[in-house]
Specification:
heterodimer, A: 333 residues, mainly alpha, 75% helix, B: 329 residues, ABC transporter involved in vitamin B12 uptake, BtuC
Chain lengths: 333, 329
C-alpha cells in the first residue's frame, strides 16, 4: 500500500478510539443487574455508597480495565508475531502460547497453590516454552518454517497442553470449578488487585512494541534486504517474540486463554490502516479491546442470568475466520 | 533392503502382537483382586466360578478389549491421515475430527441421553466433522494445506463449543462429561466392546484396502494418476476411513490424545514408509500404547485412577521434545 493510501486513513485511529470509549461505557452500563443509565453516570461521577456505585466501582470498572488491557495485549502480541515470522497465521493461540500460559497457570494455582499475582510469571514461562516447542517442531522439516507447519505444530502443542490441563482438573475437583471458568477465557470477577500489578509490565510491553515497529518494517522487506540495511533479523525476531509472549502472558493471567483475538485483530487492523507496523500496532491496540469488550458484553447479555465467557465467543468468531482465510486464500505450503 | 532387514521388519508386527497379548493378559489377571492366569482365561469363555466370571467377563475383558481395539483404530487412523496430508504432524485430533466427536458426545451427555447413545453420537460427530472438512477443502487439488488449516479452525471451533456446552451443563452430569473428555476406559461394558468390535471390523478392512493406493499417492499426484490411481476419490475415501476409525475409537474411549499421532511415527521408524506392514504396526503400536496407558493410569496414584487419555497425552509432550532433539541434530 502506498503512502498516499495510508495517509487517507488518518481518521481510523480516532474512530477506533471513539468506538473504544463507547464500548467501555457500555461495559460499565450493561450487566446482569440492569442499571438505568442515569444511575451509572452518577455512580461514575461519585455518588457514594449506592448499590449502583458499588456494582460499577467494584465489579464493572475493574472488569472493563481488565478487558482493555487483555484485549490490547493479545492484539499487539498477534501483530508482533505476524510481523516477526512474516506469517499471516502467527498468533498467540496458533503458536500454543495461550495454551502454554494457561497450562502453567493451572499448574501453579491448582498444584502449588501460590499467590495468583505470581501467575503472570508462570504464564510467561509456560507461554515461552510452548512457543519455543511449536516453532522448533515447525522448523524440523526440509522446507523450513512454513505457515502450514507452524499452524500444525502450534495446534499440536496446544492440544497436548490442554489435555494435560484437563487431566489436572480431572484430578483436582476442588479447584476445578473456578479454574474451568477462567480457562474458558473470562473477564468476570477481576478486581483491582488483579489488574494493577500487571500494569507496569503492560506499559513496558507496549513501549517495546512501539520501538520494534520500524525494525519490523525493515524485516518485512525480506531478510537479505534487512541485513543490507544494517539490521540483524534474528535479533529483531527474538525481541519481538519475547515481547509478544510477555504481553500474551499479561492477558492470560488476567483473562484466561482468550482464543483467536490475536489472530483476527491484526488482520482487521491491516485491512483498515495498511501494512506499516506503527499503524498496525496502534490500530491493533485500539481494536483488540473493542473486540474483547464486545465479546464480554455479549456474553453477559445473551444467556442471562448466566454468563458466557468472552473467550468462547472470540473463538466462535475467530475459528470461522481462520477457516474462511484457509478456504479463500492461497497459502503457500 | 537386504534379506535380513526385511525379515526383521516382518518380525516387528509379531513382536508387537505378542506384547499386546501379554499386556492384555496382565490386564485380565491384575486389579483389586488377583486372578491366576489359568482361571482368568477359563473365565473369559465362561468356565469358572461366578465371582471370577463376573469380574473377568463384565469388567476386565471389556476394558482390555476396548483398549486394544480403540488403540488399534487410532493408530491406523493416524497412519492414513499422515499419509493423506503428507505431514507427520497431522492426526485426526488436530484436524477437528476428534473435536466433532467430543462435541456430539458432550451434547449427548448434557441432554441426558442413555449411555448407549453416547458412542453413536460421537461417531456421528466424527463423521460430520469429516464431511465439513471434505466439503470446505474440496477444491484443494494436490495441496493438502487447505485441509489442514480448515481442520485446525474446525478443531478450535469445536473446542470452543465444547467449552460452551460444559459451562452450561447440568452440574450433576458435569463429572461424566469431564471424565469422558479426558479419555477414560473406566467402566467399559459389553456394549462398548460390541460397538468397537463392529466398528473396527468395518473400518480396518477399508484401511487395508486403501493402503496400497496411499503408498502410491505419497509419490505425488502425477505419479498416482499415471499408474491409474483415481486421486480425488482415493483422497475422499482416505479421509472418510480415517475419520471412521477415529470416530469408532473416540466413541468408546473418549478423545485419547497423542495415540493417533505417535503410533504411526513409531511404526514408520520400526518398519519404514507406508505399506500394509506399516499399517499393522501402527495399529498394534496404538493398541499397546492405550493398554499401557490404562494399566499405568490405574496404578499411578494410590487413591485415584488417572484416565488413560491423560496418560497418553502426558506421553505426547516428551515424545515431541525427543522428536525435536533427534531432528535437530
Amino acid at each position: 500500500m502506498t503512502a498516499l493510501d495510508t495517509s487517507r486513513r488518518w481518521w481510523v485511529p480516532p474512530a477506533l478510539l471513539g468506538a473504544l470509549a463507547v464500548v467501555a461505557c457500555l461495559s460499565l452500563a450493561v450487566g446482569s443487574v440492569p442499571l438505568p443509565l442515569g444511575e451509572v453516570v452518577q455512580a461514575v461521577l461519585g455518588a457514594r455508597d449506592t448499590e449502583a456505585h458499588l456494582i460499577v466501582r467494584d465489579l464493572r470498572f475493574p472488569r472493563t480495565v481488565a478487558g482493555l488491557v487483555a484485549g490490547a495485549c493479545l492484539a499487539v502480541a498477534g501483530a508482533l508475531l505476524q510481523g516477526a515470522t512474516r506469517n499471516p497465521l502467527a498468533s498467540p493461540t496458533l503458536l500454543g502460547i495461550t495454551a502454554g500460559a494457561g497450562f502453567a497457570v493451572v499448574v501453579t494455582v491448582a498444584l502449588l497453590d501460590v499467590l495468583a499475582t505470581y501467575a503472570v510469571v508462570a504464564a510467561f514461562t509456560g507461554g515461552a516454552l510452548a512457543a519455543a516447542l511449536a516453532i522448533g517442531l515447525a522448523s524440523t522439516g526440509r522446507d523450513g518454517l512454513s505457515p502450514i507447519r507452524l499452524a500444525l505444530s502450534g495446534a499440536l502443542v496446544s492440544l497436548l497442553l490442554s489435555a494435560w490441563t484437563r487431566g489436572i482438573l480431572a484430578l483436582n475437583e476442588a479447584d476445578a470449578d473456578e479454574v474451568r471458568h477462567w480457562l474458558a477465557g473470562s473477564l468476570a470477577g477481576r478486581d483491582a488487585a488483579a489488574v494493577v500489578p500487571l500494569l507496569p509490565l503492560f506499559g513496558v510491553g507496549l513501549l517495546a512494541a512501539v520501538l520494534l515497529a520500524r525494525p519490523l518494517d525493515t524485516l518485512a522487506l525480506g531478510d537479505a534486504a534487512a541485513v543490507g540495511l544494517g539490521q540483524r533479523p534474528g535479533r529483531v525476531r527474538v525481541l519481538a517474540s519475547i515481547t509478544a509472549v510477555a504481553l500474551a502472558a499479561v492477558a492470560v493471567s488476567l483473562a484466561g486463554p482468550i482464543a483467536f483475538l490475536g489472530l483476527i485483530v491484526p488482520h482487521l487492523a491491516r485491512f483498515l490502516v495498511g501494512g506499516r507496523h506503527r499503524d498496525v500496532l496502534l490500530a491493533s491496540a485500539l481494536l483488540g479491546p473493542v473486540v474483547l469488550l464486545v465479546a464480554d458484553i455479549l456474553g453477559r447479555v445473551i444467556a442471562r442470568p448466566t454468563e458466557i465467557q468472552a473467550g468462547v465467543l472470540t473463538a466462535m468468531i475467530g475459528a470461522p475466520f481462520l477457516i474462511r482465510t484457509a478456504v479463500r486464500a492461497r497459502v503457500a505450503g | 533392503m537386504n534379506a535380513t532387514v526385511a525379515a526383521t521388519r516382518r518380525g516387528v508386527p509379531l513382536v508387537l502382537a505378542a506384547l499386546v497379548l501379554g499386556l492384555g493378559m496382565f490386564g485380565l489377571v491384575t486389579g483389586t483382586q488377583q486372578i491366576p492366569l489359568g482361571e482368568a482365561l477359563a473365565a473369559t469363555i465362561g468356565l469358572g466360578d461366578g465371582g471370577t466370571s463376573f469380574i473377568v467377563q463384565q469388567l476386565r475383558l471389556p476394558r482390555v478389549g476396548v483398549a486394544v481395539l480403540a488403540g488399534a483404530c487410532l493408530g491406523a487412523s493416524g497412519a492414513l491421515m499422515q499419509g493423506l496430508l503428507r505431514n507427520p504432524l497431522a492426526s485426526p485430533d488436530i484436524v477437528g475430527i476428534t473435536g466433532g466427536a467430543s462435541l456430539a458426545a458432550v451434547l449427548a451427555i448434557g441432554a441426558g441421553l442413555p449411555p448407549l447413545a453416547l458412542p453413536l453420537a460421537a461417531a456421528l460427530g466424527a463423521a460430520s466433522a469429516a464431511g465439513v472438512l471434505q466439503v470446505l477443502s474440496r477444491h484443494t487439488g494436490s495441496s493438502s494445506v487447505r485441509l489442514v488449516l480448515v481442520g485446525v479452525g474446525l478443531h478450535a471451533l469445536t473446542t470452543a463449543a465444547v467449552t460452551l456446552v460444559v459451562a452450561r451443563i447440568d452440574p450433576r452430569r458435569l463429572g461424566a462429561a469431564e471424565v469422558w473428555l479426558a479419555g477414560s476406559l473406566h467402566a467399559r461394558n459389553a456394549t462398548h466392546l460390541t460397538v468397537v468390535l463392529v466398528g473396527a471390523a468395518a473400518a480396518l478392512p477399508l484401511a487395508y484396502g486403501l493402503v496400497r493406493s496411499l503408498a502410491v499417492l505419497e509419490l505425488g499426484d502425477e505419479v498416482a494418476t499415471g499408474v491409474g490411481v483415481p486421486v480425488r476419490r482415493t483422497r475422499t475415501l482416505l479421509l472418510g476411513s480415517s475419520a471412521l476409525l477415529a470416530g469408532v475409537a473416540v466413541a468408546v474411549a473418549g478423545p485419547l490424545g497423542f495415540v493417533a499421532l505417535g503410533a504411526p511415527h513409531i511404526a514408520r521408524r520400526l518398519v519404514g514408509p507406508t505399506s500394509p506392514t506399516t499399517l499393522t504396526t501402527a495399529a498394534l503400536t496404538g493398541a499397546l500404547l492405550v493398554l499401557a496407558a490404562d494399566a499405568l493410569g490405574q496404578r499411578l496414584l494410590e487413591d485415584a485412577a488417572v484416565p488413560a487419555g491423560v496418560v497418553t497425552a502426558a506421553l505426547g509432550a516428551p515424545y515431541l521434545l525427543w522428536l525435536l532433539h533427534r531432528t535437530g541434530r
